[in-house]
């Protein structure tokens, strides 16, 4: 029962946020995937510059970085502290873990791939949880067993699943790239 209440509470927050900000979540999801790829391009340009010792790749890297920064501003409107950087790294980590999962899948290691895809999605969901304003540090509590739990702000009761599970449920329900 608490799980349903927690997810419904999160969905209500998302609905309120999207009404206030007039945010098209499916476009935001597409844009976030594009940003992931721009981060990856930045990494490849860095490594290519170092492998070839050609500084022209650094100039390209800087142009891609400027574009990525502009596009991130479309999604990350309000942030405090290091949420901007955390967001960038969550997207980058999600993309890289997903790529490793894809390589494991190609090798036939389906269980390993599934585990990596699950971790990638959790990181991606945390990105959205932070940037939709539905999860903040006040909503999270670390348990004695080092598991991070979501706390429903109304009941102040500890949820029965991890913060990743709560945010993952939210992202599944709120962000659907197939909605037109």
UniProtKB/TrEMBL annotation:
Protein name: Uncharacterized protein
Originating organism: Candidatus Woesebacteria bacterium RIFCSPLOWO2_01_FULL_39_25
């Amino acid at each position: 029962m608490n799980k349903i209440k927690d997810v419904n509470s999160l969905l209500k927050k998302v609905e309120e946020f999207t009404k206030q900000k007039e945010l098209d979540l499916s476009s935001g999801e597409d844009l976030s995937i594009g940003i992931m790829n721009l981060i990856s391009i930045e990494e490849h340009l860095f490594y290519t510059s170092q492998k070839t010792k050609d500084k022209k790749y650094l100039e390209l890297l800087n142009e891609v970085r400027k574009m990525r920064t502009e596009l991130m501003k479309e999604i990350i409107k309000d942030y405090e502290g290091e949420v901007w950087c955390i967001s960038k790294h969550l997207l980058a980590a999600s993309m890289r873990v997903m790529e490793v999962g894809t390589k494991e899948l190609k090798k036939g290691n389906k269980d390993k791939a599934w585990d990596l895809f699950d971790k990638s999605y959790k990181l991606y969901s945390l990105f959205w949880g932070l940037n939709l304003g539905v999860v903040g540090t006040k909503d999270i509590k670390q348990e004695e067993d080092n598991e991070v739990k979501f706390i429903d702000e109304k009941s102040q009761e500890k949820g029965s699943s991890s913060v990743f599970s709560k945010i993952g449920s939210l992202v599944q329900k709120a962000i659907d790239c197939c909605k037109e």
